[in-house]
């Protein structure tokens, strides 16, 4: 299994799709950083916001960055390596791979590689943007404070709301709070990529594997917003989101996506066995 997993990871990291998505993600992170710098260029140092305020994963301060990134997140994660089964079929590699490694080793090693690839391309731009912001912006700032200089706006107007999740973590450390959300978004992206991978066993088409979750998640987000259902997955993977979220709905939302990623396993394995 380890040998097959190393082989699949090597294929993932060297694939054209994965490299192209990584380049795009890095450019997106840098562009967001540059825009943040330009927005405060020439301001007095006391009015320059802190790092976590300029981090593009902050849904409260950088709403448009988050909207754009959350819309393309399913597409990026699935384009990384979720179409690899279709690629193997197109090149007639399936019988060779199964003969060499066995059905289960081939299937599960590729599934793990798909998860890692999908998570990596979402973690990478956030970590790069976070590090760039750490270099350019102050660690803490008076920008956060109200007229009385005793309470921060974030504490009085945002963190006091019922929809604000992980309040104690934010109070303990805003930086740890946003790092936690970076990890959550990476895990969610990996699960989304796996769903795209599973779907490719039933519709053997690369465009379908890339676009299924992009279309499904964005349509569901619109539907949930219209009917005020707090199950938009992007609300739970970016810090400072301002929907009607609860811990219960967060667990339910991520749990449903996780189930969608594991339910097809026996059916996909059956299809692979038919390739022998």
Helix-strand string: HHHHHHHHHHHHH
**Backbone CA Rg:** 21 Å
First and last CA, distance: 19 Å
Residues in β-strands, percent: under 5%
Shape: elongated
Which residues sit in consecutive blocks of at least 5 with pLDDT less than 50?
146-151
The oligomeric state of the chains shown is: single chain
Percentage of residues assigned to helices: 55-70%
Overall pLDDT score? 89
Q: Structural class given helices, strands, pairing?
A: mainly alpha
Helical region count? 13
Give the biggest beta sheet. none
Question: Tally of extended strands?
Answer: 0
Key terms for this structure?
276 residues, elongated, mainly alpha
């Amino acid at each position: 299994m380890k040998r097959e997993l190393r082989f699949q990871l090597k294929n993932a990291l060297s694939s054209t799709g994965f490299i192209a998505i990584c380049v795009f993600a890095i450019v997106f992170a840098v562009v967001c950083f540059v825009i943040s710098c330009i927005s405060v260029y020439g301001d007095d140092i006391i009015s320059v916001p802190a790092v976590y305020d300029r981090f593009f994963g902050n849904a409260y301060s950088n709403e448009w960055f988050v909207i754009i990134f959350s819309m393309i997140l399913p597409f990026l994660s699935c384009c990384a390596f979720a179409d690899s089964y279709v690629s193997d079929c197109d090149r007639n590699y399936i019988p060779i791979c199964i003969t060499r490694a066995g059905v289960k080793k081939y299937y599960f090693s590729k599934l793990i590689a798909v998860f890692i690839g999908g998570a990596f391309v979402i973690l990478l731009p956030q970590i790069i943007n976070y590090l760039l912001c750490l270099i350019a912006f102050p660690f803490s700032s008076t920008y956060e404070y109200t007229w009385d200089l005793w309470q921060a706006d974030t504490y009085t107007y945002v963190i006091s709301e019922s929809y604000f999740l992980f309040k104690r973590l934010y109070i303990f450390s805003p930086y740890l709070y946003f790092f936690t959300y970076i990890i959550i978004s990476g895990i969610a992206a990996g699960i989304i990529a796996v769903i795209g991978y599973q779907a490719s066993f039933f519709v053997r088409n690369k465009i379908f594997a890339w676009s299924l979750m992009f279309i499904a998640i964005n349509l569901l987000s619109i539907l949930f917003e219209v009917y005020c259902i707090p199950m938009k997955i992007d609300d739970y993977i970016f810090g400072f989101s301002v929907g009607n979220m609860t811990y219960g709905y967060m667990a339910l939302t991520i749990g449903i996506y996780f189930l969608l990623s594991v339910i097809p396993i026996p059916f996909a394995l059956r299809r692979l066995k038919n390739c022998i």
